[in-house]
Amino acid sequence: MDQQTVNTIAGQLHDALINRRVIDPITDTHADVSIPDAYRISLKFLEQRLAAGERIIGKKIGVTSAAVMDMLNVHQPDFGFLTDAMQFGSEMPISQLLIQPRAEGELAFRLGGTLQGPGITEADVIAATEAVFPCFEVVDSRIESWRIKIQDTVADNASCGLFAYNDSAGINPSATDLAALSMEVEKNGTVISTGKGSAAMGNPITCVAWLANTLGEFGISLDAGDIILSGSLVPLEPVVPGDVMTVRVLGVGECTVNFT
């Protein structure tokens, strides 16, 4: 794909983000788009967000669990970038910022050291992590009706929307078996899903190592201070203003978000 086409699609995605509208699937309008092309679009899309004043504060892994793969019909993980405009506390204004939001319970890693792939191991991830927290990521898609293939979600910054994590409920990953952690998600007072840490590529730590090594191929590192979202442990859940959701990581803590 030539650079002008990459720039054009990235501009369409940025316009869709700003104006809260959808576009046709990129894989429909550009049937020859490859995964490397999609990452070029994603980086140009990010460049436009940064030019508008946003700041990178972390990265995310997407499509890590079988439940999410099956829901989206996308069967390999991808990555995106988190900016300061995406982070919220217990109140999240989805009606003002998102188009077709879906919430997912995750773990958020806060790094104290840098991880630069290739060759990053799970031991490296544990050594570089300050703490792990219960987290909600609310994914969104600029693609009409979530009709996505892997190239569509990659180009769309891994369908990033907004996120929130409870920084008072952190744990040390070196003292905890993250694969064995149990998570439950409550919506409007009813538990709607449960999951294990092992749902995300066998272990959330494995997800972060994958991300460090994959980004290393692009010359990009995971940096000290970054927040890393390691992928959902439960199915995605559509949300609307007025919903209240809580994600509980048993033995760790919880994170509650009121959607407005």
Task: Describe this structure as you would to a colleague.
This protein is an alpha+beta fold and 260 residues long. It has one domain: Fumarylacetoacetate hydrolase, domain 2, CATH 3.90.850.10. Helix content is 29%, strand content 27%. It contains eight helices and twelve strands. The chain has helices spanning 3-19, 26-29, 35-51, 66-72, 94-97, 122-128, 150-155, 204-216; strands at residues 56-62, 78-83, 91-92, 102-111, 129-139, 162-165, 182-187, 190-196, 227-229, 237-238, 244-249, 253-259. Helix 1 (3-19) crosses helix 3 (35-51) and helix 6 packs across helix 8.
Overall residue-averaged pLDDT value: 92
Assess the beta-strand content as a share of residues: 25-35%
Strand count, sense and closure of the main sheet? 7 strands, mixed
Radius of gyration: 17 Å
DSSP strand count: 12
CATH class: Alpha Beta
List keywords for this structure.
260 residues; alpha+beta; Fumarylacetoacetate hydrolase, domain 2; seven-stranded mixed sheet; five-stranded mixed sheet; 8 helices
